[in-house]
Write a structure and sequence with these properties.
It contains twelve helices and 14 strands. The protein is an alpha/beta fold. The model has no long low-confidence stretch (mean pLDDT 93).
Length: 402
């Protein structure tokens, strides 16, 4: 029989699920619970989480502002890879999990806890992401995943349990239980309810970070983003820290109907799921960074990055942030990114991000070489030998076989 749990650090949002888990942990395990709430820019009043934890009699409560660390050490490195999962998803939920897992393990060591707990369901990716992070950082930690243990196996039962235990149940604008959401500075996701049918269009009232493209202004917004050594450093000439910069791009993107995506994706656990995402600032940043790379990266390095990207995105999506292969890929990506310096100008208009200019002090673009006018640096006759050598195997391949 395994040893009893004495003290557990719970990743606690203060929402319905983790509030139920907090009560359930104390009832089921009789252990001391420590709550950890990370401010990753979800836009909620986190003192509410403290008040709820205190209501449950929790003595050790950690609420930490991790916004700059999140963007600097997780979002920006991932964007250096231009990571898109299955060609569409900017990995907003995925990239937040390793930081939360890291701080949980650090807090567990600080308070002498022998276990950690999370609120991810047994059907989703987050259980994998959290736990791979836990075990990578502390192989001996005990993990409690209530959704895999309890009999509250539906949203209806969860709400009934909450009401029986005087746990407040949030309501949406229609007075119903809200969509399942995850929010941070990079994005907000929506799942469940009517969205479980992939044919049903999302209701406009659901969105919180962006206008619809139809409601966006008729006049475009022009924005310039400066990059240095691979990362964005200023917007419209104003230097900003990592979190403030992404927040500024979120404001600009949201006001122009940018960043909505409706995706059916393949979960790591094997099923397909439908999610709707708002990633306004990330969508702008992704487009701008690609434009900056087009000017500053050697073609071989750029194409190799594109080959690595799907493997990198899959590693992040599946929860392998702390794996050797992700770190190896990151090292090569970061080396290439050292050249990504300069300015990109974009036009934001009714859901579109349009690149209108790019410049760099380390640009590899040579106007005198590429010009259609007369030049003295490129001998067009050289192309004949180049083509014939590349065609050699094709021509030989057409020879009749004996």
């Amino acid at each position: 029989m395994s040893e009893p749990i004495k003290k557990v650090v719970l990743a606690y949002s203060g929402g319905l699920d983790t509030s139920v888990i907090l009560k359930w942990l104390t009832d089921t395990y009789g252990c001391e619970v420590v709550t950890f709430t990370a401010d990753l820019g979800q836009g909620e009043e986190l003192e509410t989480a403290r008040e709820k934890a205190e209501m449950f009699g929790i003595k050790e409560i950690f609420i930490e502002d991790l916004r700059d660390e999140f963007v600097r050490d997780y979002v920006f490195p991932m964007f250096r890879a231009n990571a898109l999962y299955e060609g569409a998803y900017l990995l907003g939920t995925s990239i937040a999990r390793p930081l939360i897992a890291k701080r949980q393990i650090e807090i567990a060591a600080l308070v002498g806890a022998d276990a950690v707990a999370h609120g991810a369901t047994g059907k989703g990716n987050d259980q994998v992401r959290f736990e791979l992070g836990y075990y990578a950082l502390n192989p001996d930690i005990k993990v409690i995943a209530p959704w895999r243990e309890w009999d509250l196996n539906s949203r209806t039962k969860l709400i009934e349990y909450a009401e029986q235990n005087q746990i407040p149940v949030p309501k949406d604008k229609q007075g119903e239980a809200p969509y399942s959401t995850d929010a941070n500075l990079l994005h907000i996701s929506y799942e469940g309810k009517a969205l479980e049918d992939p044919w049903v269009e999302p209701d406009e009232t659901m969105f919180t970070r962006s206008l619809s493209p139809e409601a966006a202004p008729d006049t475009p917004t022009i924005v310039e983003i400066d990059f240095k050594g691979g990362d964005p450093v200023s917007v419209d000439g104003k230097a900003l820290g990592p979190a403030a910069l992404l927040e500024r791009l979120n404001d600009l993107g949201g006001a122009n109907g940018i960043g909505r995506d409706d995706i059916v994706e393949n979960r790591f656990v094997g099923m397909k799921s439908r999610g709707v995402y708002e990633t306004p600032g990330g969508t702008i940043l992704f487009k701008a960074r690609r434009a900056m790379e087009s000017l500053t990266l050697d073609s071989g390095a750029m194409h190799l990055k594109d080959e690595i990207m799907p493997r990198y995105a899959e590693a992040v999506y599946n929860g392998f942030w702390f794996s050797p292969e992700r770190e190896m890929m990151q090292a090569s990506i970061d080396l290439a990114s050292e050249r990504v310096t300069g300015t990109v100008r974009l036009k934001l208009y009714k859901g579109n991000v349009i690149v209108t200019g790019r410049k760099s002090p380390v640009s590899l673009y040579s106007q005198e070489t590429v010009t259609f006018e007369a030049d003295t640096v490129y001998n067009q006759r050289d192309a004949e030998g180049f083509i014939k050598l590349n065609a050699l195997r094709l021509r030989l391949g057409k020879k009749p076989t004996p």
